[in-house]
Amino acid sequence: MAIPGVLPPVFSEGQIFVDGATINNLPVDIMQQQGRGPVIGVDVGAQGVFTADSSEADGPPLWKFIRMVTGREKHINIFQVLLRAGMINGTTNSATVRDYSDVLLQPALGNVDLLNWQAFDAVVEAGYVHAMERLESIKAILEK
């Protein structure tokens, strides 16, 4: 993951790589064109990409600042804003190309923020459970 403006790019053999969400977050159209077999798209999408638990744009008064610092009140940080702004194109593109998937998996991840590394195990488990639930119904497609 190398999100422009949030995390540094990856440099390899004279090339610079940034996160795929910047251009094509769900490249099933490209995979379908290669014709190598059934294409399984996994769209973890950006549901609620522009929602926030904060309702004020101005800086908080001291008592609210203390609540934010102690974790009792959520606030927006600049990394989330940059990430979500950069994902607009990818989210729109994903909605357009979903039909190129032979199988589309969309595990329910709730409101897990993309930068919430502590949720990693829970997200992996949610993806695994979703795939296992769908496996029987998609076996015929995968065996083509």
Describe this structure in words.
The protein has 144 residues and is mostly helical. The chain has one domain. Helix content is 40%, strand content 8%. It has helices at 28-34, 62-69, 78-86, 88-97, 120-142, and strands at residues 10-12, 15-17, 40-42, 103-105. It is extended, with a radius of gyration of 19 Å. The protein starts with 9 loop residues before the first strand and ends with a helix.
Task: Please name the defining characteristics of this protein.
40% helix
**Rough outline:** extended
Helix content: 25-40%
Succession of helices and strands: EEHEHHHEH
Query: How much of the residues is beta strand, in percent?
Result: 5-15%
The biggest sheet amounts to: 2 strands, antiparallel
Indicate the structural class.
mainly alpha
List the uncertain runs: 48-52
N-to-C terminal Cα separation, in Å?
Answer: 32 Å
User: Could you tell me the number of beta strands?
Assistant: 4
* Average pLDDT figure: 74
Radius of gyration: 19 Å
The structural domain count equals: 1
Main sheet strand line-up: 1-2
Instruction: Please work out how many helical segments DSSP would assign.
Output: 5
Q: What's the layout of helices and strands?
A:
Blueprint: E1 10-12, E2 15-17, H1 28-34, E3 40-42, H2 62-69, H3 78-86, H4 88-97, E4 103-105, H5 120-142
Parallel strand pairs: 3-4
Antiparallel strand pairs: 1-2
